[in-house]
Each structure stands twice: as structure tokens, then as C-alpha cells.
Amino acid sequence: MVCLESGLIESIYIVFYKRHGIIDNIVLESLYGYFKKKGDSVEQMDNVGTTKNRDIQEYSQPWFKDGLRFECQRCGRCCRGEPGVVWVNKREIEEISGFLGISKNAFAKNYLRSINDRFSLLEYSNGDCIMYDNGCKIYDQRPCQCRSFPFWRPNLENRTEWEKVKKTCPGIDKGKLHTLKDIEDNLRIHERRFG
Ligand code: SF4
Asked: How many CA atoms within 13 Å lie on the side-chain side of 19?
């Protein structure tokens, strides 16, 4: 009976954790209440997030916990053919204009468009990025949006989404292994800018 109850509580915990990615205070309170009723010590109760639930923690690891391979093949598929936006902020404008050896004004005039108080790289009428000329002209100084691809939240939802992107990007599952930490750092940077 105790086992059954414990299993039930843990199941609720897993479902909640998986759905929200956080331990809600209300859930934590009820878990504390449950263990207190059972007569566990404070130390044991404090194990709610550690040893008692090691299995749960492992269960809650993302599907890409062992890392993912990606190395850009510089094929340009993601830079051409479809209309889109490539956002650049003030710092990137300074960095890219410096990289090109031109003034910020010249860079803005020749390469940028303004959309709702933000700036995006221009594109040609066929959808190609203005920076694409048989390869990316600013690859070593490319904006965060390009640099963080393909580690964007929608692409990492599950393996199926990752496989879908793989059909359009030949760099996926090739080359360098990006660790879970690399990927999560990248996600944080991307979401701080675009989330
Ligand atoms: S489609 Fe993938 S491999 Fe090709 S340029 Fe874009 S990121 Fe690189």
C-alpha cells in the first residue's frame, strides 16, 4: 500500500516535472507533506530532489542528454531560397561592419532593413541572404541567429523534430559532438535574444 502511494505520488511528480520542466512549490509542498506523514526525517525529506528521486531525475533528462553532433557544411541551404529575417542587434552591427572594414552607416545603408524598430539583414528578391555569395561572406562574424542554429527550441522538442531539420540541413548528425551543456547554453543564449 505504501509502495502504491509512493508510486502514485512519484508518477504525478514525473508528469508535472516533464510538462513544466520545473518543480512547482505546490507540488513540492505536497511531497513534503507526504513524506512528513510517513515519518521521514527532515534530512530524508530534503532528499526529495536528490537521492530518493534519482530515477526521476534521470527520467527527466532531455532526449539529447548524450549530446548531439552538428557541423555546418557551409552548403548555404539555410541562407537561400526562402524569404525570412536575420536579426542583428547593435553589437552585431558594430562587429560585422568592423569585420567588413566599413562604417556602421555604410553597413546599415547597404545591408540592413528596418522592421518594427529592429534590424534584419537584407535579402535578394529570390530570398537569398545578402551576405551569401558562393558561401557566407561573414561566416566568422555571423549573427547569433545563424550561429545558434540548429540548437533552437522547436528543433529540439523531440527526436522527430530533429530528424525533420536534418532533411534540410546536411550538417546535422555530422562532425563535432556538442555536449548537453553546450546545447543548453546555446538554447539560453538563443532564448534570451529571440524567445
Ligand atoms: S543548411 Fe546546415 S550545413 Fe548548410 S549552411 Fe545551413 S547550417 Fe550549414
From this structure: 8
Report the residue among 70, 71, 73 best suited for mutation to probe ligand 1: largest number of ligand atoms under 8 A from its CB: 73
Whose Cα sits closest to atom 7 in ligand 1?
Answer: 72
In the three-class reduction of DSSP (H, G, I as helix; E, B as strand; rest coil), residue 176 is classed as strand
- Residue with C-alpha cell 552585431? 92
Cell numbers for 125, please give them.
528578391
C-alpha of 95 from chain center? 23
Tens digit of each residue's pLDDT (9 = 90 or more) over 92-149: 999 999 999 999 999 999 999 999 999 999 999 999 999 999 999 999 999 999 999 9
Give Cα 36 distance to the centre of its chain.
38
Helix residue ranges, H only, 81-122: 90-100, 104-111
Q: How many CB atoms lie within 10 A of CB 52?
A: 18
- Which DSSP helix (H) or strand (E) runs through 70? strand 68-70
- CA dihedral (163, 164, 167, 168) positive or negative: negative
Grid cell at residue 183: 546545447
pTM, two decimals, is 0.69
Q: Is the pLDDT of residue 55 over 90?
A: no
Q: Interior CA angle at 150 toward 149 and 151, to 5°?
A: 95
**Ligand 1 atom closest to residue 73's alpha carbon, by position in its atom list:** 3
Query: Nearest C-alpha to atom 1 of ligand 1 is from which residue?
Result: 169
State which amino acid sits at residue 56.
I
